[in-house]
Design brief:
single chain, UDP-N-acetylmuramoyl-L-alanine:D-glutamate ligase, ten-stranded mixed β-sheet, 3 domains, alpha/beta
Length: 500
């Protein structure tokens, strides 16, 4: 993290470099998505279906997402095959699709236009005012919060986020259209493609090294966020966290380059300061106080905010959302009421069930800071009882780079069980295993198989204890198995279950 405060890393020049014009969605014809079941791809496909575009796609396996897209009118094939590229006008891929994919090979052979998913998403945005949410972590929850908030404010926003929004049952919605409409997008920085959206408001929750399998160095991560700010539409505003060193450095560079910037956080120098944060059970509260000028307008006020989600990090996420609403003309009391209707996002400290007073939560955290915040929330909810965590590392490269940091974050649990690495898109790296984490010197953090972890937790957990499954891989599937093991051990019933 030696580059975090390097203020000599300047923004691109010119500040708003020319970007390719967005593709017109109504000119794309029949659009085929290779890997349509992914979180980002499925959201774009759903939006195009809602807009009346003919959509097909493929994936390697059946899933609930594939089924929902079929129900919405898409033709989806499993598995992938060159034969699926028939009567197709445009093909959409993500970075995960390799050049030897049979459908991509067929599309190239036919001379079809091939768009990256970010180009397809930009096409769907049309003339809307874009609120793009980026950051190493927190962007799914923050973009979901902003979407719910603007919906409650009566703006009927379009949105495409990386998770199912609780109470909405979807990760995508095509709302009002036109130059005064709002489009909320989760801007994924993992492959550098998040510079295509030309946002009116760019939210950056934090800037930390990640995705080093793509960027290779910390410095390139920070430079990517420079480019993201450089992609703002003329007059666009950067909203970012004053508490995060990487984001604060980005704010300083942006201000020096003449970009309007509004910051939030607990820091005394934040433009919107969060005070008196409380977090208990499944809710949290704070006082928000703001005083700043932006684009020639003065904003000043104070507002109590109560959320239906726990954790200090969610108050920070809400502060970012609060500023976006202020910048679009909403007032403090109505913003607070709108944010108070947000009830969470899938796999973001989601309650999966409760047996004999033991609650099982699931969380997508897969970066050391995310894991720390997730466990911090779990510790608050446990309120003096034990916190048990089953963690599945995601990617060999991420485990290699952050093994010690993962161990430090996991040590916040009374007992953390670390499973084998979920490889996702990577091949194994020699010498990189979960034991890089468990051998880092923290007695609470131990290697385990899923079976041994479940057995141990079921034998130890008592009423009031919290159990968490954590990671971006298939560790989420352990929730039902944990609940079943707890039922067998304690003889209790499943008394509560919450789904997004």
């Amino acid at each position: 993290m030696t580059e975090l405060m390097n203020l000599e890393m300047v923004l691109p020049a010119p500040l708003n470099p020319p970007f390719p014009e967005r593709h017109a969605m109504d000119a794309l014809g029949h659009v085929h998505f290779i890997g349509i079941g992914g979180a980002g791809m499925s959201a774009i496909a759903a939006l195009m279906l809602q807009a009346g575009v003919t959509v097909s796609g493929s994936d390697r396996a059946e899933s609930s997402t594939v089924e929902s897209l079929r129900a919405a009118g898409a033709r989806v094939s499993v598995p992938q095959s060159a034969e699926n590229i028939v009567d197709v006008d445009t093909v959409v891929i993500s970075t995960a699709i390799h050049e030897d994919n049979p459908e991509l090979v067929a599309a190239r052979a036919q001379g079809l236009p091939v768009l990256h998913r970010s180009e397809a998403l930009a096409a769907v945005m049309g003339l809307s005012q874009v609120v793009a949410v980026a950051g190493t972590h927190g962007k799914s929850t923050t973009s979901s919060m902003i979407s719910v908030m603007f919906d409650q404010l009566g703006r009927d926003p379009s949105f495409a986020v990386g998770t199912v929004i609780a109470g909405r049952g979807t990760n995508a919605h095509l709302g009002a259209q036109g130059p005064d409409s709002i489009f909320v997008a989760e801007a994924d920085e993992s492959d550098g493609s998040f510079v295509r959206y030309r946002p009116a408001i760019a939210v950056v929750t934090n800037v930390e090294p990640d995705h080093l399998d793509f960027y290779k160095t910390d410095e390139r991560v920070f430079e990517a966020f420079n480019r993201f700010v450089g992609s703002l539409a003329p007059g666009g505003v950067l909203v970012t966290c004053a508490d995060d060193p990487g984001a604060a450095s980005l704010a300083a560079r942006s201000r020096a380059a003449g970009v309007p910037v509004v910051t939030y956080g607990e820091s005394e120098d934040a433009d919107l300061r969060i005070r008196e944060i409380t977090s208990a059970g499944s809710s949290s509260s704070s006082t928000m106080e703001w005083a700043f000028e932006c684009r020639g307008e003065r904003f000043e006020g104070e507002q109590e905010l109560v959320l239906k989600v726990p954790g200090i990090h969610n108050q920070l996420n809400a502060a970012a959302a609060f500023i976006t609403a202020l910048l679009t003309g909403a007032q403090g009391p109505e913003i607070a009421a709108a944010l108070g209707e947000f009830v969470g996002a899938d796999r973001r400290f989601t309650l999966r069930g409760e047996v004999a007073g033991v609650k099982v939560f699931d969380d997508y955290a897969h970066h050391p800071t995310e894991v720390f915040r997730a466990l911090q929330t779990g510790r608050t909810v446990a309120d003096g009882h034990n916190l048990y965590v089953i963690f599945q590392p995601h990617l060999f490269s991420r485990t290699r780079e952050f093994a010690k940091e993962f161990a430090e974050s996991l040590s916040k649990a009374d007992r953390a069980y670390v499973l084998d690495i979920y490889p996702a898109r990577e091949l194994p790296i020699e010498g990189v295993t979960s034991k890089l984490i468990t051998d880092a010197g923290f007695s609470e953090v131990r290697y385990a198989t899923a079976e041994s972890a479940i057995e141990d937790i079921a034998s130890c957990a008592q009423s009031g204890d919290i159990v968490m499954t954590v990671g971006a891989g298939d560790v989420t599937a352990l929730g039902p198995r944990l609940l079943e093991a707890l039922q067998i051990r304690h003889g209790g019933d499943l008394t509560q279950k919450s789904e997004a």
